[in-house]
Amino acid sequence: MKGDVTASGVREKAKSPLLGLGEREIASLIPSAPSYTARQIRAFCFAGRDIDGMTSLSKALRASLKEDYVANPVSVMRVYASRDGSKKYLFSLPDGNLIEGVFMPHDYGNTLCVSTQIGCRMHCAFCASGADGLVRDLHFSEILGQVVAVNAAEGGSVKERAVTNIVLMGSGEPLDNYDNVMRFLDEVTAADGLNVSERNISLSTSGLADKMKRFADSGRKVTLSVSLHSPFDEERSKLMPVNRRYNIAAVTDAARYYFKRTGRRVIFEYTLIAGVNDSDACAEKLKELTKGFPAHINLIRLNPAGTSLKRPTADAAKEFMLKLNAMGVSATVRHSFGEDIEGACGQLRRRVSAELAAEDKESARGRTEDRKGSKFTTA
Ligand code: SAH
Question: Considering only CA atoms, which residue is closest to atom 7 of ligand 1?
Answer without folding.
Answer: 206
